[in-house]
């Protein structure tokens, strides 16, 4: 997932028009209104790929998130009657834990 929050609705609307996604009004009681743009899954990975050349602080986090999403999207979808193998679940969990460690 990618979330971008800003108090300027025009910026958030431009992101949505340019890259898709959804806009939410963030709840911040007693403060100025702010808006949040959200994208998920491969849409988020595609956006992060476009942003990689400009990222400095969050570059490693973005690279891991892209790899995670590409790996997850290539797995068969778990659904009713079709579950992921233990190896697939373990690999996804390991990648998720790495991403969480990098974010701290």
From TrEMBL:
Gene3D superfamilies: Homing endonucleases (3.10.28.10). This is Homing endonuclease LAGLIDADG domain-containing protein.
């Amino acid at each position: 997932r990618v979330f971008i929050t800003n108090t300027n609705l025009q910026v958030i609307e431009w992101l949505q028009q340019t890259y898709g996604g959804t806009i939410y009004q963030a709840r911040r009681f007693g403060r100025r209104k702010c808006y949040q743009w959200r994208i998920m899954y491969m849409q988020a990975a595609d956006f992060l790929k476009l942003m990689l050349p400009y990222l400095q602080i969050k570059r490693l986090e973005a690279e891991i998130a892209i790899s995670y999403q590409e790996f997850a999207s290539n797995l068969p979808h778990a659904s009713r009657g079709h579950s992921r193998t233990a190896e697939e679940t373990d690999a996804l969990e390991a990648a998720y834990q790495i991403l969480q460690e990098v974010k701290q």
